[in-house]
Specification:
Length: 139
């Protein structure tokens, strides 16, 4: 399974919110204009970010604000909040490898740990990058 665009949409939205929350009301319409996606998609992403405690938002004209400092929001937090990667991870194994085949019968033993290490490495790297890093690069 591929990480969806919701992840990069969320990072873009959070960077915009951080940079402009004190200058203007950051609404889904404003974010949709910057990101160039439908405001419905923005509202879905914002809802997930709010559920995760990353943003505060008020329906109507209230706009969105960060609920915590950018240095306390990791890319991993965002990834977990908005993406639909389930507990099996990014990689979905094909369902029925033939158990009597030398490859099919052993593919899980040969590959499962390697896939888990790749997933862990990616998640650990996401934990080490914060929105403060992203916004700092934007400035």
């Amino acid at each position: 399974m591929q990480i969806t665009s919701r992840f990069t949409i969320a990072v873009h939205a959070l960077a915009f919110i951080d940079l402009f929350q004190d200058e203007q009301r950051v609404t889904s319409k404003v974010l949709a204009s910057s990101i160039q996606v439908n405001p419905v998609i923005i509202r879905t992403v914002l809802s997930k970010l709010k559920e995760a405690g990353i943003i505060d938002s008020r329906q109507g004209s209230g706009g969105s604000r960060l609920a915590k400092p950018p240095k306390d929001i990791s890319l991993y937090d965002i990834y977990k909040a908005v993406d639909t990667v389930d507990e099996t991870g990014l990689f979905h194994f094909h369902e029925n490898p033939h158990p009597d085949c030398v490859v099919g019968g052993n593919i899980h033993k040969a590959l499962d740990d390697k896939i888990r290490r790749v997933q862990d490495a990616m998640e650990n790297e996401l934990k080490n990058i914060t929105m403060a890093d992203v916004v700092g690069d934007l400035k």
